[in-house]
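Hey, I'm writing a tutorial for new members on how sequence and structure tokens pair up, and I'd like a real worked example in the thread rather than a made-up one. If someone can provide the structure for the chain below, I'll link this post from the tutorial.
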Amino acid sequence: MTLPATTPTTGVQVAKDPSARSTLLRRSLQQMLAFAGLIAIFIVFSIASPVVFPSYTNVIQILFSAVVIGLLALGSTLVIITGGIDLSVGTGMALCAVMAATFIVTWHLPVLLGVVLAILFGGLVGMVNGISVALLKLPPFIATLAMMMVASGLALVVSNKHPIYFDAGAYTDISTGTLIPGSNFPNAILVYAVAAVVAAVLLGRTLLGRYDLAIGSNLEATALSGVNVHKWTIIIYAVAGLFTGLAGVAISARLGSAQPATGQGYELYAIAAVVIGGTSLSGGKGSILGTVIGSLIIAVINNGLQIVSVPQEWQNVILGVVILLAVFADQFRKRT
């Protein structure tokens, strides 16, 4: 197998290869359908609550609530494209938040250094996952499930089972502050936007993205072509961990504290955003734009259901149905 000179989403080869052009067309149509779904859901809730839901304040709140799930989903996209899964992103996020508080509050390190170290710690967690999958040959489900439990326990141990509070200032401004004077546009939304662009560049314009797609499409053939699939799998999981670390910073800055039990359940929302956005659970196919749309769909659904006073248990039922439909659509596309 000879890897293409360009990824399926970019480059001259798409224009020359009819099959690649057809794949690109299907992917673009898929993203358009996801975006159309987002608009349709927004319109439905706007009709149900014409005063509150479409207001500028609520739209900002929707974007704000999509940030943490979206950041986790960006990393999960890279992992799922390999054909793997990462169940540790939620508790890993909580652990990174606790480590950020430890660096900044307990150790009194500068805020910028503490943020960088917390993000790198997330990369370390991801790297351990990658080593477990690539070198120890553990199934990704088992490897990351074990890490989910380890991270959950370590977050409680390091924090001594208590929240660690930040002083209002530079750290909390990462999420709740605003770079636009006189506006209520939170910095967290800008952080998410920049992270999404970085993830899109990594997937669409770098060797990491090229090998990510290749590993997910055909691991054995990629290895036979001379690619060190073990090394690149570890790198991909480590990069995904960096986004988990950034999510830990974002959520702790938003809350003004590191809550050691915060992350439980977030991995499900992250995976849901990835699947709704069109990334295939079997690997080899996915896009960052689709994941961003998926995170927005989840945020819109959660926000809209709360505004129209749907009970929490029914909110979970509805979101579960949406996920099932997204997975069914993915399976249907593969059969056609």
